[in-house]
Amino acid sequence: MSRPKIVILGAGYGGIMTAVRLQKQTNANEAEIILVNKHNYHYQTTWLHEPAAGTMHHDRTRIMINDVVDENKVNFVQDTVVEIKREEQKVILENGELDYDYLVIALGFEPETFGIKGLKENAFSIRNIDSVRKIREHIEYQFASYNNDKEKKKERLTLIVGGAGFTGIEFIGELADRVPKLCNEFDIDRSNVRIINVEAMPTLLPGFDPELVEYAKNILERKGVEFKLGTMIKECTEEGVILSKDDQVEEIKSNTVVWTGGVRGNSIVENSGFEAMRGRVKVNKDLRAPGYDNVFVVGDCALIINEENDRPYPPTAQIAIQEAYTCATNLLRLIRGNEELASFKPDIKGTVASLGEGEAIGTVGNKKLYGSTASAMKKIIDNRYLFLLGGPGLVLKKGKLKLF
Ligand code: FAD
Ligand code: NAD
């Protein structure tokens, strides 16, 4: 009898954890497991603000897939997914195609630009290794060019971050740490550099604990960040951004605009005909796509409603990892002929966000954390994930071992 074929698309948190769980739990020859990913490495999306600002080398955030996936159990295919043909149970890749008995869609997120003019063309985004390497090199080039210009151009040293959600805040914290080092390296007075955060809502980190938000704002302002709150980015041009606040329009010239104003699920999901809201499929409790009993969706491509407030859970790595556990359990049950599947219930342990070296804010359980304690907690969370993925060896190889 032929083995059921499980195809997992994407090796981010949701995809690689599903593969690793399955490789641990399946018996030899119980299933054929195929993992498809664009690159031959998994990267830690949750660390990308650091290489984007240049405070960490991007290689520290990536882990070769063959280092964590057992090639005797999982067949890794390096390729790019183009389309899912649902009715034919087939995945079209750039260099071929794959059929499946069971599919796991874990293709992650894309920046959401809400149709704002010029953002796609002119702004950078923090999405993957390629995109953050480009941001770091671009900023370094601006600093390196400044003293070579005949007329010293302020826009080279005006750095704009659009959006003060967690990504924007974590990135700006790193940027504020990096700028004094760049000034030193390229003989530039710090007072010539502006780091501006633009946020549409009246506060940074809308919805987060107000006391911790105030703490974050003070820390970042002390590091020289300017906040423009209650201010919308209306347009991004080749010259900079056009902002609006209370019907007042302002243009800021800048060569560097990084958009962190929101995310959506991978557009392949809706382009393949799945019913989705901003690329996210509202999955059943067992994580299957409605109407497709052999298709699971996990991570940022999945939408799950929090029944306590009737709002979607935010797309996070924390939830993607937990979904992977349930997804692997349910796949095992299906291939073993057990139709009674487990329901997914997120277990939100808290949220911790860094504000640069040695500084962070967070809530863990009902405890508020800030400063060096929160920063150490953030590193413990990062190390815990490495432990789940590759055991103590991976923590020693890639972990953040200096907690304070
Ligand atoms: P992703 O991590 O996006 O992985 C998707 C994978 O699919 C990637 O490997 C990609 O290469 C691959 N892929 C994409 N398209 C294709 C294709 N067409 N073909 C083949 N492969 C493809 N969440 C937290 O819980 N805690 C945090 O501290 C936190 N910090 C964050 C910091 C930053 C800077 C950012 C940007 C996000 C952060 N998040 C955090 C959110 C978290 O990173 C996402 O929710 C998480 O990455 C989603 O995981 P995923 O597996 O769905 O997708
Ligand atoms: P987000 O949607 O959480 O935040 C985007 C911010 O941009 C919002 O505050 C929004 O008001 C603002 N914005 C939108 N349009 C704007 C405009 N035109 N002008 C100015 N501001 C505008 O997006 P994110 O920060 O990328 O986070 C994505 C997901 O990743 C979230 O679920 C988040 O919780 C998660 N995340 C978690 C962490 C952490 O736990 N440490 C870190 C980063 C991201």
Automatic annotation (TrEMBL):
The protein's required cofactors: FAD
UniProt keyword annotations, A-Z: FAD, Flavoprotein, Oxidoreductase
GO BP terms in the entry: aerobic electron transport chain
Listed GO MF terms: NAD(P)H dehydrogenase (quinone) activity
Positions of the FAD/NAD(P)-binding domain: 5-324
Pfam families attached to this UniProt entry: Pyr_redox_2
Coiled-coil blocks: none
Signal sequence, renumbered to the chain: none
Family: Belongs to the NADH dehydrogenase family.
Name of the protein this chain belongs to: FAD-dependent oxidoreductase
Organism: Pueribacillus theae
Organism taxonomic ancestry: Bacteria, Bacillati, Bacillota, Bacilli, Bacillales
